[in-house]
Amino acid sequence: MLDARQLEALNAVIEHGGFGPAAQALSITLAAVSLRIKSLEDTLGQRLLVRGKQVRATPAGQALLAHVKQVRMMEADLLDGLQGGAARGGARWQSLSVAINADSVAGWFLPGVAALLQRHRLLLDIMIDDQDHTHSALKSGDVMGCVTTLATAMRGCVAEPLGVMRYHCVAAPAVAQRCRTPRGAVSLHKLLAQPAIIFNRKDALQDAYLEQHFGLRQPHYPRHFAPAVEAFETAIELGLGWGMVPEQHLSQRPGLEELQPGATVDVQLYWHHWTHESPSAQRLTEAVKAAARERLRPVPAGAAPAA
Predict the structure, then answer these.
(1) Average pLDDT, integer, range 183-196
(2) How sure is the predictor about 85, in pLDDT bands with cuts at 50, 70 and 90?
(3) Does one domain contain both 113 and 250?
């Protein structure tokens, strides 16, 4: 049997960013935290933490952290059921951690799960990252589910196809005009002379657009970085450059002009979650899938099945 206090110490070190903050959060001494971690490592016969300027979990430590989160959620659901919970109007608030790309949060995720959160007193702890990178947060045990572009589930998890987010290349009318030839066609040379608005340095949608529709790989062009959805789209509206905007947002930005109507980039999304979920996590998974069915484009025929 794993020692609950030792697991609690491991979780606190990662959650609070070090042994000192963990000791303070647990109201025990720094030596006690170190002893609990060492005892756990001795019991399992392997290192769980990489000590240094920034403490991080080893793969074994990540697996244990995921276990701790699962146990916490299951205990919360059990206590709520034993105490009557919502039937007496006293259900506990329970937190669920997820990793999602910013466009999904604003475009379909929150509108789709809001009713569930309110009905079951669930709190979301959302980690924002690019859709190609959210999977690492699930792998590290930081979250119980993530929206990602990866189709293959890691061991102990399930990957379920959600649907497709379609992105359009848009710009303010003045910028769009500068990107076109006298006949109205987009000139690659003129387009690359204009700055692109990019969400962050992980954002590869602009490069995908240039490769899919112009056959250009590893392109070079000036770039603005605006790592917030509102700032990103406002920068395009203000004429600072061109960028890729999901179709769910276009109705809110009538001043933007599509550079090449019909030349889009489709991003297929998957919901990854643990195979064994608590009841609350299962409810969230079902709400996420329902929201995707309603708000995303259908999964193409032949897409990877749940694994």
Answers:
(1) 95
(2) low
(3) yes
* pLDDT at site 106: 83
The reply to whether the predicted model has a pTM over 0.85 is no
Q: Is residue 89 scored above 60 in pLDDT?
A: no
d(CA 155, CA 63): 11
Same domain as 169, residue 180: yes
Nearest to 243 by CA among 109, 100, 103, 148: 103
Residues 124 and 260 in one domain: yes
**CA-angle at 146, arms to 142 and 151, nearest 5°:** 125
Percent of the chain with pLDDT over 90: 52
Q: For residues 305 and 205, state if they share a domain.
A: yes
Same domain, 107 and 216: yes
pLDDT: is 46 or 171 the higher one?
171
Cβ-contact 270, 147 below 8 angstroms = yes
> Tokens at residue 57, please?
């979990």
**How many folded domains does the chain comprise?**
2
Domain around 120: 94-307
Q: CB of 48 within 8 A of CB of 10?
A: yes
Same domain, 25 and 69: yes
* Structural contact between residues 229 and 256, judged by C-beta atoms closer than 8 angstroms: no
CA distance 277 to 99: 16
Q: Are residues 77 and 222 in the same domain?
A: no
The 3-state DSSP class for residue 86 equals helix
**pLDDT at residue number 91:** 61
The neighbour count for residue 224, using CB atoms within 10 Å, is 15
